[in-house]
Design a protein that fits this description.
Elements (H helix, E strand, L loop, with lengths): L3 H20 L3 H9 L6 H14 L3 H18 L4 H35 L3 H30 L2
Helix pairs in contact: 1-3, 2-3, 2-4, 5-6
């Protein structure tokens, strides 16, 4: 029984140190702890919540800190290099090549249909070709704007 007392004392000292450390945390850190409880031990979240209650922050201040914390988390998120590589090195060149090859084919086929007297299908094919060109233009502009960071 005497062997358990030193362990209990050590635990009490560690607990007091943790309480002291939590008391020294900023309001933003305590709010992050409350907003992301899965990242902490349940008893640490309870201690953080108690400290946050003692500070009696105004709701507007809580909301401002939460917005700042969310922005910090977004800034810490690593960039998606795979997405950028796929877009710049694979998707755009493939779309460009396919678009450049496919558009003249549409016009050649439409001309052939015109010569055979099937003007309705030729007109429909030209219409589809223009829709495809407009789709390519929108995709290219969107890709350029995203690449520029807009």
């Amino acid at each position: 029984m005497l062997g358990q007392v030193p362990g209990a004392i050590e635990f009490a000292i560690e607990f007091a140190e943790l309480q002291s450390r939590i008391a020294g945390m900023t309001d933003a850190e305590l709010l992050e702890m409350a907003d992301q409880p899965a990242d902490y031990e349940p008893w640490a979240v309870d201690l953080g919540g108690a400290e946050l209650s003692r500070r009696r922050l105004a709701p507007a201040e809580v909301q401002r800190l939460q917005v700042e914390n969310a922005a910090e988390v977004a800034d810490r998120r690593p960039p998606n290099y795979l997405h950028a590589w796929l877009l710049h090195e694979f998707v755009l060149p493939v779309l460009l090549i396919v678009g450049l090859a496919a558009f003249p084919v549409h016009l050649v086929v439409a001309r052939s249909l015109d010569r055979r007297g099937d003007r309705k299908q030729a007109r429909m094919l030209r219409y589809v070709a223009w829709l495809i060109v407009m789709g390519y233009a929108v995709a290219a502009i969107t890709a350029l704007l995203r690449w520029a960071g807009w």
